[in-house]
């Protein structure tokens, strides 16, 4: 497909080796204690956090699947990516100061302090079942399928399709496991950031080359082609017939994204390892900005493929591979394969690292060996990670034998644990008297009710609930919040919960947190206007006559709000954080010779 296979493999190995070497250099000698291993020594800067969050979130499955959906229908599926900005802002502005202020290593650790050890075990079980039984195996398997669709592995190596699936899964799994098990979080973050840079390069390069091909050598002509012919392909406003109706953006999708970006351990672990609150907020918000690029490099190529190939492709999932094959120069084939593999195993190693962290810190230490020292915890984490990796490598290929229905289960499976966890976190933070029993009741209630609404009534009674599963997220969120509040009223805690600030890092906020958040929301609105019936999806011209007026109104409103935030809100926000992190708190970090006092760094004398 890409000229000489040996050239492709050699250049791929070179780029992957370069990433591995740079990751080793950046992490050498920094995983000697539990903080260094599990939280990257609390030294991650905004750039590494943003890069790692980007690549952890984006995968080869999305690269293939989202472009395939754009080829088949329109851009409505971009909602999962673009609207993540709402959750990212809540995480950066409100929840991250809570997490860093309490010096939490894992989310269950926070829940144990807010509720009790029982709630901690319940949430760990939910995370572990999701990671081990579905998320990790499906991540590996879908990644392997993406590679196989882009490269003819059976033909290249003269082996069967089944053998090719096993081979690709084991290659991805072993490489990812090496980073996660032996390098700890910082190795994962560094490798993710480097691979993320490569993904951005490829992500921008492919649509540019696609436009040039579509315009027969002229970039602008290619861009105009998709704007004036079949403009409906550029519509992001999903109808009831689309897989993501527009209305779901304002219901369950908000809570699904909030869980993912603000309470999913394998995502938030990067932010918990931030050098300080400022760097953490910067990293989280920049990752939200990256998400706005997803329509460009994960969906526009699918639209370009539709204009180039029409409906001639046998499968919608071949849209991106076909475009890559036709427009990407052969000398970049190895670089592209390295980036593709990096995107796949970044998600895998992130999941593996977080699962091992949860086991060591939330199961082994509190339940099995309370006196375990740092070296013991690191050792246990590595052993558990190794076992989990091996189990995953054997389970993942078995998905070849799964029915089509199981893929639906995989896509929706996080519904079993995303809503109850974010409900418990938010109610736990925002109330003082809701007891632990309320959290346990909600977890049990949700697992049973969600199954019945999404699958159970159909399986047991042959009755289908006519509600989109994303709307079910929102319904259960509201019901479960109400349940916890009612239980808190009827059977409150004897002693009110008090959040105790115990920061290990500076809690001075990033001065651009609120202005950047406003800009991010404005850009979300602008993105939807661009890809709407008054924007590029307009039938009678490139854009409608109202397009520029709406864009100008959004930008002027954002500019006014940013001005107010700089003049007024920034100071009030800093005062709010100070009131929740007492200025008399004194924290000394001997390793970095830094004194944290009154939220500022001072040289340690």
UniProtKB/TrEMBL annotation:
Membrane-protein topology: Multi-pass membrane protein
Family stated for the protein in its record: Belongs to the sodium:solute symporter (SSF) (TC 2.A.21) family.
Pfam families, A to Z: SSF (PF00474)
Keyword vocabulary terms for this entry: Membrane, Transmembrane, Transmembrane helix
Molecular functions per Gene Ontology: D-glucose:sodium symporter activity
Transmembrane found in the keyword field: yes
Protein name (record): SSS family solute:Na+ symporter
NCBIfam families: PRK10484.1 (NF007790), sss (TIGR00813)
Transmembrane regions: 6-25, 37-58, 78-101, 122-141, 161-182, 194-214, 244-262, 283-310, 330-361, 382-400, 412-430, 437-455, 467-488, 509-531, 547-569
Compartment(s): Membrane
CDD domains: SLC5sbd_YidK (cd10328)
Species: Mesobacillus foraminis
Main subcellular location: membrane
A GO term from the CC aspect: plasma membrane
């Amino acid at each position: 497909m890409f000229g000489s296979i040996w050239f492709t493999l050699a250049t791929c190995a070179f780029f992957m080796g370069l990433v591995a070497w740079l990751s080793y250099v950046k992490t050498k000698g920094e995983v000697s204690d539990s903080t260094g291993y599990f939280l990257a020594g609390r030294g991650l800067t905004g750039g590494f956090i943003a890069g790692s969050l980007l690549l952890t979130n984006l995968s080869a499955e999305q690269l293939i699947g989202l472009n395939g959906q754009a080829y088949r229908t329109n851009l409505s599926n971009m909602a999962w990516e673009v609207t993540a900005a709402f959750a990212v802002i809540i995480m950066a502005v409100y929840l991250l100061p809570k997490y860093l202020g309490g010096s939490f290593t894992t989310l269950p650790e926070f829940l144990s302090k807010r509720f009790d050890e029982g709630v901690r075990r319940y949430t760990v079980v939910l995370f572990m079942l999701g990671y081990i039984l579905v998320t990790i195996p499906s991540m590996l398997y879908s990644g392997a399928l993406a590679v196989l669709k882009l490269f003819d592995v059976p033909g290249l190596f003269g082996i069967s399709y089944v053998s090719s699936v096993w081979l690709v899964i084991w290659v991805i799994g072993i490489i990812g496991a090496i980073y996660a098990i032996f390098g700890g979080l910082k190795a994962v973050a560094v490798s993710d950031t480097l691979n993320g840079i490569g993904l951005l390069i490829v992500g921008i390069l492919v649509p540019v080359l696609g436009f040039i091909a579509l315009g027969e050598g002229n970039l602008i002509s290619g861009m105009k082609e998709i704007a004036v012919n079949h403009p409906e392909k550029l519509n992001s406003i999903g109808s009831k017939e689309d897989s993501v109706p527009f209305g779901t953006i304002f219901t369950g999708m908000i809570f699904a994204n909030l869980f993912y970006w603000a309470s999913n351990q394998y995502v938030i672990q990067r932010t918990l390892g931030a050098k300080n609150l400022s760097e953490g907020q910067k990293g989280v918000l920049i990752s939200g900005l990256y998400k706005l690029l997803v329509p460009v490099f994960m969906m526009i190529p699918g639209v370009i493929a539709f204009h180039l190939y029409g409906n001639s492709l046998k499968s919608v999932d071949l849209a991106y591979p076909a475009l890559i094959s036709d427009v990407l120069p052969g000398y970049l084939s190895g670089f592209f394969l390295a980036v593709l593999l990096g995107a796949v195993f970044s998600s895998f190693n992130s999941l593996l690292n977080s699962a091992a962290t949860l086991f060591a810190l939330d199961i082994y230490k509190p339940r099995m060996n309370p006196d375990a020292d740092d070296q013991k915890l690191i050792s246990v984490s590595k052993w558990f990670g190794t076992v989990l990796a091996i189990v995953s490598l054997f389970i993942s290929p078995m998905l070849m034998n799964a029915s089509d229905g199981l893929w639906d289960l995989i896509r929706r499976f996080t519904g079993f644990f995303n809503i109850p966890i974010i409900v418990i976190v938010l109610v736990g933070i925002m109330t003082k008297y809701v007891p632990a029993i309320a959290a346990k009741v909600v977890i049990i209630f949700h697992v049973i009710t969600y199954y019945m609404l999404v699958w159970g009534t159909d399986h047991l009674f042959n009755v289908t609930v006519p509600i989109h599963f994303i709307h079910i997220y929102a319904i259960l969120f509201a019901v479960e919040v109400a349940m916890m509040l009612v239980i808190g009223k009827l059977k409150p805690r004897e002693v009110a919960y008090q959040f105790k600030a115990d920061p290990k890092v500076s809690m001075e906020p990033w001065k651009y947190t609120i202005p950047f958040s406003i800009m991010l929301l404005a850009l979300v609105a602008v993105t939807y206007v661009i890809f709407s019936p008054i924007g590029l999806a307009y039938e009678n011209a490139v854009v409608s006559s109202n397009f520029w007026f709406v864009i100008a109104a959004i930008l002027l409103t954002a500019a006014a709000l940013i001005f107010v935030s700089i003049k007024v809100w920034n100071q009030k926000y800093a005062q709010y954080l100070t009131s929740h992190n007492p200025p008399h708190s004194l924290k000394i970090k001997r390793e970095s010779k830094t004194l944290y006092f009154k939220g500022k760094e001072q040289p340690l004398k």
